[in-house]
Automatic annotation (TrEMBL):
One GO biological process term: methylglyoxal catabolic process
Keyword vocabulary terms for this entry: NADP, Oxidoreductase
Keyword presence, S-adenosyl-L-methionine: no
Identification of the protein by name: Aldo/keto reductase
A Pfam family: Aldo_ket_red
Family: Belongs to the shaker potassium channel beta subunit family.
Superkingdom: Bacteria
UniProt domain NADP-dependent oxidoreductase: residue ranges: 15-314
Annotated SUPFAM superfamilies: NAD(P)-linked oxidoreductase
Length: 334
């Protein structure tokens, strides 16, 4: 396992992080989820990402139980706040009330006194940014989080949040966007802004919900047990990539992966790690053996010619529009 600094902060994290969105608490049973977390630890992963909304809090609970007994100082535990965690009007968003209540709930479920990184899961258009950042500052000063991050914020929103964080003297060090060889919307605006500000990317879905593994083939039904057959939410998220033109292009990457001595999944994870603004790629798993395969992408260097050939193959199906980031934050709370 290779390690990188999170942005220009002093925090060092594993360049492959383990995330339990969709799977833990919903898609797989807890014993399997625990086995996946143990496999991640065995593979050298020290960085774990979750959120209070995942499986209605159960994902945090599963992670907390699985990591119990591990040396806390040797782990980096990340979680997030924004999406609804209850039926009330104040059970969502980035108001001071919701942030202060949510951090305590997350710490209880994770069975820890602090998280290393507390992230705004989306931008809240209904709350003054000053209120949000002041609440985050109080979380940091109370010792409940060491660093602050954001997820799916636009470059403009990141700049505004970072400026307030500097005024409040708290470390806003990370951005967690979707990023893969198929989804490159952060390259035009978010990455340049973050490079300037010293903010690192912790990217999710580097294998595009499994599509970049090549297991979904043109004209064929999804494999049994794959995310595309999951009725607990997985099928919804992967459906946008299950177009014939996308699947055909992904299959054309097989010779490139073979030349590099990699599986398609390893090629996809290695691809995002070639970007120096990426501090970590988040992988998930529904089976422990998937961990070892993806971790083999750590430390891989892809040559420039191979990267150009990947670009040429995928160019017709790549999403690059930076406006897509803004679409991920609802104008009103849900």
């Amino acid at each position: 396992m290779e390690f990188r600094h999170l942005g220009r902060s002093g925090l060092v994290i594993s360049e492959i992080a383990y995330g339990n969105w969709i799977t833990h608490g919903s898609q797989v049973e807890e014993d399997t989820a625990t086995a996946c977390i143990r496999a991640a630890l065995d593979a050298g992963i020290t960085t774990f990402d979750t959120a209070d909304v995942y499986a209605e809090g159960r994902a945090e609970e599963v992670l907390g139980r699985a990591l119990r007994g591990e040396r806390r100082e040797g782990l980096e535990i990340f979680t997030k706040v924004y999406f609804p965690t209850g039926p009330g009007r104040n059970d969502s968003g980035l108001s001071r009330k919701h942030i202060m209540e949510s951090i305590d709930g997350s710490l209880r479920r994770l069975q820890t006194d602090y998280v290393d990184l507390y992230q705004a899961h989306r931008f809240d258009h209904s709350t003054p940014l000053e209120e949000t950042m002041e609440a985050f500052a109080d979380v940091v000063r109370a010792g409940k989080a060491h660093y602050i991050g954001v997820s799916e914020w636009t470059a403009e929103q990141i700049r505004a949040g970072h400026a307030l964080a500097r005024q409040l003297r708290i470390p806003l060090v990370s951005s967690q966007p979707q990023y893969s060889a198929l989804w490159r919307v952060i390259e035009a605006e978010v990455i340049p802004a973050c490079e300037e500000l010293g903010i690192g990317q912790i990217v999710w879905s580097p294998i595009a919900q499994g599509v970049l593994t090549g297991k979904y083939r043109p004209g064929a039904a999804p494999p049994p047990g794959s995310r595309a057959t999951d009725d607990n939410g997985g099928a919804t998220f992967v459906s946008r990539w299950l177009r014939e033109d996308v699947l055909e292009r992904v299959q054309q990457l097989r010779p490139l992966a073979q030349e590099a001595g990699l599986s398609l999944a390893q090629l996809a994870v290695a691809w995002v790690l070639q970007n120096q603004n990426v501090s970590a790629a988040i992988i998930g798993a529904s089976r422990p053996e998937q961990i070892a395969e993806n971790v083999a992408a750590s430390g891989v260097k892809l040559d420039a010619q191979l990267l150009r050939r990947m670009d040429e193959i995928l160019a017709p199906v790549v999403e690059r529009d930076p406006a897509r980031t803004a679409e991920s934050s609802p104008k009103a709370r849900r």
